[in-house]
Design a protein that fits this description.
about 350 residues; five-stranded antiparallel sheet; 20 strands
């Protein structure tokens, strides 16, 4: 747990008053754009940097000012990217390295390493060098080297950044399956939003040195609270609307020539920001029941299973993702833009 964790560099605040609880047995993904503060926050957790203010505790014990070696002995272990695998060592020697340098007998360290290599599917590759492995196998060596230390918390630093897209999907699924099988507690830093949504129990989005929003992947995508989160997690059309009245948690929102009843997110009556997910929009050549706008298709791209459209409307251009069914709309087509309630959100303007 962190409370008020802050890091300042010569007047520049890189992490500002961050409160975070990481639950045992869960994966927390930490994401954000470059400069958001996620790497600095991660380095504070791993004790590579001392905080300027605030505290870090583990199982109730204050570890704020511990040295990295002390924190590692508590079972908080950092797993680096593929590039941290030692190229001159065999797979077995790489996996056993942490125990060997900690003073364990080499025989015992190798025995423990073989067990962990078997867990990650590398039982028969222990005598190979990293150069003889695929990128995904190298990443599993790095994971095994961390697991051999029997971590209570495993901290992943951009673990898949050096892999191509297809291999990234495969290895992230392997990491998730391994984490669930061993009930590991994981903090997972990544720049890839899709990776974060796929692998985690909870997503923590950072922006401008603070946590912009945190919650389950479904919460973050389905209920963004700010324009930044809506635009950063997935795609979103950000448009203007007007909240005209409220009734409990919901309100009447005018969007162009139509209106909808939506959660008002605690905002007052007046102009508001609206986030519309591309898949929450359906195009039709006939009017339908429910909220809709008049539009003209300005771009149309066939991508196999989906169509991507850009549609000009009274509230601006909307990006639309539609299943590529029999009815497709060419550029210039006049359409009805039908809005689904589940993908339209009233959000606060980001700081």
């Amino acid at each position: 747990e962190t409370r008020g964790l802050t890091k300042e560099f010569k007047g520049f605040v890189a992490v500002n008053q961050v409160d975070l609880q990481v639950k045992r047995g869960h994966i927390h993904a930490l994401i954000g754009p470059n400069g958001a503060g996620k790497t600095t926050f991660f380095n504070l957790l791993t004790k590579f940097l001392p905080p300027s203010a605030g505290s870090i505790s583990f199982n109730g014990a204050d570890i704020t000012h511990e040295k990295p070696a002390q924190t590692a002995r508590r079972g908080i272990v950092r797993s680096f990217q593929i590039s941290a695998v030692f190229p001159h060592m065999t797979v077995l020697d790489n996996a056993a390295y942490g125990l060997v340098v900690s003073g364990h007998k080499k025989k015992d360290a190798e025995e423990a390493a073989r067990v962990k290599l078997a867990l990650v599917g590398l039982r028969d590759l222990d005598r190979r060098l990293p150069s003889e492995l695929s990128g995904g196998q190298q990443q599993r060596v790095a994971v095994a080297r961390s697991l051999v230390l029997e971590p209570k918390v495993l901290l992943f630093d951009e673990p898949l950044s050096n892999l191509d897209a297809k291999l990234r999907r495969k290895v992230r699924d392997e990491i998730r399956e391994l984490q669930q099988r061993l009930s590991l507690t994981v903090v997972y830093v990544t720049h890839d939003q899709h990776e974060a949504l796929a692998v985690s129990d909870r997503v923590v989005v950072m922006d401008n040195a603070v946590i912009a929003q945190q919650g389950s992947p479904r919460d973050l995508y389905g209920s963004p609270t700010t324009t930044f989160v809506a635009d950063f997690i997935g795609e979103a059309n950000l448009v203007k609307g007007r909240l005209t009245s409220t009734n409990g948690a919901t309100g009447t929102v005018v969007i162009g020539e139509t209106e909808m009843t939506l959660p008002h997110s605690g905002l007052p009556v007046g102009e508001v920001e609206i986030a519309i997910r591309p898949e929450a929009v359906r195009l039709s050549d006939t009017a339908a029941a429910g909220p809709q706008l008049a539009g003209t298709v300005t771009k149309a791209a066939y991508l196999g299973s989906i169509m991507e459209y850009t549609v000009a409307t009274a509230i601006g251009e909307l990006f639309v993702v539609d299943r590529a069914g029999e009815r497709q709309f060419p550029r210039g087509a006049k359409v009805h833009v039908i809005l689904a309630r589940s993908g339209v959100h009233v959000v606060r303007r980001a700081r």
